[in-house]
Amino acid sequence: MPFLVFDVETRIDKVLVRAVLHRHAEIDVDEAYEQTRADIAARSRSGSDFLPHAFHVPVSIVVGEVDDERVLRDVRVLGGEDYGEAGIVCEFWERVEAFRGTLVSFNGRAFDLPVLELAALRYGCVIPRYFEAGYRDHDAEHLHYDLYDFVTNGGAYSVRGGFDLVARLAGLPGKDKLSGSDVQTLWETGQLAAINTYCRRDVIQTYFLFLHLERMRGRITQSQHAAALAATTALRAELE
Question: In this structure, is residue 110 part of a structural domain?
Answer without folding.
Answer: yes
